[in-house]
């Protein structure tokens, strides 16, 4: 073991000194690796920042991290599939430390009518104080006021819906839905607030009223359609859902956001694939230079390699020497590239304003400011991919070096 | 070609007294479209502690014989035993192991590793062998002093003269105390004064260490230092004996 370590150390020493024999070539190759590593990591952090923002915005757009429903509600989101008032066990689970905030909502399909037009919408009855902690509605209020309590008789609508209905802040509208007996339940509301949203579907399709008022209108007592919960970290939603499900018993359906919005989850998976593909493409460009550097290094040292073989160094040790040289080059390049990427991301911690080009992106839930996010996972993907592919790229020149015939190699001029 | 030994009594094959035994060794190699005979049924026995020169005109087979004995080039046929190990038939890795453990090499062109210092070059073979650091360091210092390079251990090859570099190569060859040292034209790149000093060093090491030295050369002055001269011509042994008599054998 000691002799193995001594020989490994000898290989590292030889590789390091050999790297600097032709320092110009090494510096050029290092510059390429640094640039490659920087661009891989910076682009990955930009993409990660964009998707993280999309996920956060997506979760703020009502789902929260975890939701509880009546088992039939997701198939048929009507008032018939409302949940009974919270059990004491579930309520104490929602007050636990792992839950940052929660709220209950009544959420039913409805029709809204102004004096000029009628549109289909989703009527959401909210508890304004609790809702403020979970969703975008209060933050994105552009005009008027937010609801002041569960029994507030006002209505909040999106700007686009306001335009479609050809009505205005302060005017009255009528909202109609069905009660559990399939009778028409309707009520007049005064529009007290208008919200903007990055997603057009929200601005056109959702209206918000006090939860108690909606429960009264639908004649459902204290029943609700859903409980939305926010935990410490959206990535831990599955664990949170499992904890809450225990308290909820088997009668309610508890789902993390990944199940509620599979598209967001898919996008996160796609991002990992995108980052890997990006890293591999950049590395492929790098690998030509890397292989060329190693082939030249082996070619220039043919005599020396022949000498080592003649002195009794095993061919596999020659393979190790060339690979160590390549890995050292990559490690130095990656270290500098990582540092530069970290500095760049730190310098851009306030975000990059892409409003010039982001107008159309809003429809996909992308905001006008992207904040790059340096994730350990992305760092690991970029660095490990480069190291593994670099190792593979070095195999060919390494094997070529190990197959040299000592006598022929020693006679090379 | 019959086996010829300088010793009066024929040593027993495989005995500790025999360092090299070649029996009916043949080797041909290609030079372009031509097939060149390198060794033609060569048989030779070299005993432990002998100081032998292999001499031949250019292309006569001395380097081929040296390389074949050293396991650098496998023979086409015949049997070679070095320090009790059959060389013919060994695989590449096994021959590398044999060279590492039993043979020291000195080449015409010094062949030091340029990125290592003189001391590191001397330590190199021992390091590959897995010798402990302290032992290796002590041994390298002792050997460098023995070849007259005390105090020059931290110099890189480019900071040394040809004679000094060749001394480092000799130090590297003897540092691991091999059973045999094979030197291929070790003085060819040296001036006459350095050549003389190097040969005196070989004689001294041969006497003090008791190691077997085989030197391929066509330099009469070098042959004069050895105690046995094996002459080759066209891949055949044509003379074997003390330098003054070998040409008449």
Condensed summary:
The complex is a heterodimer of chains A (413) and B (249). With 413 residues, chain A is α+β, with helices and mostly antiparallel strands.
Large-scale geometry of chain A: elongated
Stretches of chain B where pLDDT falls below 50 for ≥5 residues? Answer: 1-13
* Number of beta strands of chain B: 10
Strand order of the largest sheet of chain A: 2-3-8-5-7-6
Distance between the termini of chain A: 37 Å
Helix and strand content put the structural class of chain A at alpha+beta
Compute the average pLDDT of chain A: 87
List the helices and strands of chain B in order. Answer: EEEHEEHEHHHEHEHEEH
Class from secondary-structure proportions of chain B: alpha/beta
Helix content of chain B: 25-40%
Query: How many domain regions of chain A?
Result: 2
Q: How do the helices and strands follow one another from N- to C-terminus of chain A?
A: HHEHEEHEEHEEHEHEHEHHHHEEHH
Whole-number tally of structural domains of chain B: 1
Radius of gyration of chain A: 31 Å
Number of strands of chain A: 12
The stretches of 5 or more residues of chain A where confidence is low (pLDDT under 50) are none
Oligomer: heterodimer
